Amino acid sequence: MAKIGVTGATGQLGRLVIKQLKTKTAAENVVALVRNPGKAIDLGVEVRAFDYTKPESLGEALKGIDHLLLISSNEVGQRKAQHENVIRAAQQAGVSWIVYTSLLHADTSTLSLAGEHLATEELLKASGIPYTLLRNGWYTENYTGSVAGAIAAGAFIGSAGTGKIASAARVDYAEAAAVVLTDESHRSKVYELAGDEAYTLADLAAEVSRQTGKDIPYNDLPENEYVERLRSLGLPGSLAHAIAGWDASAAKGDLFDDSHTLSWLIGHPTTPLADTVKVALG
């Protein structure tokens, strides 16, 4: 059986991928590649130290890895260089296939995140290593993470207008990654992955209202006003601009996809919005 390496395995997505892989292949076939091995002892698989910013050590860590899941770095602005370190190390170590978590419609998206993902896709194309692109859409948790704050404030705020958001739960994307990594028929594919159910932020607010019995409206703001509101809540200016910009891209349809490729890959419908809201409400 192929030896499967997962980078960022102690992250929110990585942990779920490891869990899903262990349902599809023996635990001894899975390797967690992590910056801090001490945080991975509960994963139940082999753990190797793996820091995107230390290229001199990456080749050794990838020895014996056949299939590599490259989960994109969480250091926005540093991603291209860090991913290039991993891809070069994979060449050195003889990795036979790289699966990369990219961004939904990365080649046409106006999201500020798209550039680094596209650059990584180009690095993969030039590497000579067979690859597969998992162009992941938004995680529903990106929005439900702010449910508690919205309830406390009495409203959701944003700049997404009536843009449709086809998000899915993080576990859905993790399951798709595990399916792909354990079936070589998925080599050389580009998958646009998104949830089955598209909603607006007003729909999200309505669902939270329904489940809590409280009136929690969605207040749509001009992008610049949303930036200032986020800054007033203590967010750094660069992050406030990024978040508001992502909403502006959502308003343009950049978080929408109705191909149902994700549910096809995992063999069942993606997690409903109502279910993820319920989890967020505890």
TrEMBL record:
Gene3D superfamilies: NAD(P)-binding Rossmann-like Domain, UDP-galactose 4-epimerase, domain 1
InterPro entries: NAD(P)-bd_dom, NAD(P)-bd_dom_sf, NmrA-type_oxidoreductase
Segments forming domain NAD(P)-binding: 8-150
Signal peptide interval: none
Residues in coiled coil: none
One Pfam family matching this protein: NAD_binding_10
PANTHER family in the cross-refs: NMRA-LIKE DOMAIN-CONTAINING PROTEIN, QUINONE OXIDOREDUCTASE 2
Protein name as annotated: NAD(P)-dependent oxidoreductase
Originating organism: Parapedobacter defluvii
Lineage start: Bacteria, Pseudomonadati, Bacteroidota, Sphingobacteriia, Sphingobacteriales
